[in-house]
Amino acid sequence: MYGRKLDPQPLTGGTTVRDLVDNHFFAYNSARLREACQLLSKRILESEATVGVTLSGALTPTGLGYSAMVPLIDAGHVDWIVSTGANLYHDIHRSLGFELFGSSPYVNDLELREGHIIRIYDILFDQDVLLKSDAFLRQVLQSPEFQRRMSTAELHYNLGKYVRAREQALGMHYRSMIGAAYEAGVPIYTSSPGDSTIGMNVAAMALGGSQLQFDVEADVNETTAIVHAAKQAGQQSAVVIFGGGSPKNFILQTEPQIQEIMGIPEKGHDYFIQITDARVDTGGLSGATPSEAMTWGKVDPEQLPDTIVCYTDSTIAMPIMVAYILDGCAARPLKRLYDRRPQMLEALRQAYLQHAPIDEPLEHTPGSGGTAVGRGTPHPEG
């Protein structure tokens, strides 16, 4: 009647991560983290659900790319990724042999500036790390396979090939997330490709004649095709969101794209897990709840019990979640969604042609005092 009886037991020196989560995370956000771990391991990863993960905030500089995301990718527990470009850029520093250091956030930033030291809160590294990483990027992006318009998944896949080759040439044990995703066929998208050092280098090189351009329309269609393909195959779609921001919206907007824009019957993502420190009451997307997302068609209303928001730091939650998953979940076959993009896009195109809304002509042109009349449902924003 009341729920689970809270039956505390003493912790011991031999307590495992799984035991800690299952039997000691009793309430508040520790309980939400327990629920997220259990939902992932007992429901999502035991099925054929397609799992998309978003990354925002500076996670790869902390080492979580190699320590957490790479093991998940290798085990087939991540099928596609939407990340800030910054996470992908900082992901390659260690692949090139550079070092980052843990420090204190309470340092003299003027002294750091004068010493050409970069700070990300309590992480420090030499400015040369940026300059030499930029030089590596420019050298790679000049290669013939980059001299065209492409989706960010294509750019990251090709870049991952070069980064992985550099790691192997240096004989490193370290593996970047972008290199692991290349090997596993896991597509990585960036929702705002110009908003990172990778995008800044692409822009600068365009002034010098580079033909590389971001195909943002391809990104929207490819990510939508991934979700559509999962649903058409009778599988479920799960989203695991670390942080919020643009990657969160980009992964969730795939369902309104299917339903609202393309007119294809659908209900929304089946599973929603978010780790965030964003408040709900400011109205921002980062803090928007699964039930709010449900009103937009982003989450299946019948699946709201399978939605969890844990309010904590991703650098706390991610290692715990990954250790819990790897301890109890068998590896899944790689879906290699990157390789299947042409087929998934064609299936989406055919469904769109079958269901595309037919809008009636406007009665009056905008600004004439008339009302625009169409057949579609009113847009959720008004």
Per-chain topology:
Blueprint lengths: L16 H8 L3 H17 L5 E6 L8 H11 L5 E4 L1 H7 L9 E2 L6 H6 L2 E4 L2 E4 H15 L7 E2 L1 H18 L7 H8 L3 E2 L7 H11 L5 E2 L1 H17 L4 E6 L2 H8 L1 H8 L9 E6 L13 H6 L11 E5 L2 H15 L12 H15 L27
Parallel strand pairs: 1-2, 1-9, 2-7, 6-8, 9-10, 10-11
Antiparallel strand pairs: 3-5, 4-5
Describe it for me?
- The chain is of the alpha/beta class and 382 residues long.
- The chain has one domain: Deoxyhypusine synthase (Deoxyhypusine Synthase).
- It contains 15 helices and 11 strands.
- The strands form 3 sheets. It has a 6-stranded parallel β-sheet with strand order 7-2-1-9-10-11, with helices on both faces.
- Helix 2 packs parallel to helix 14 and helix 6 packs across helix 9.
- The chain is globular, with a radius of gyration of 22 Å.
- The two termini are 42 Å apart.
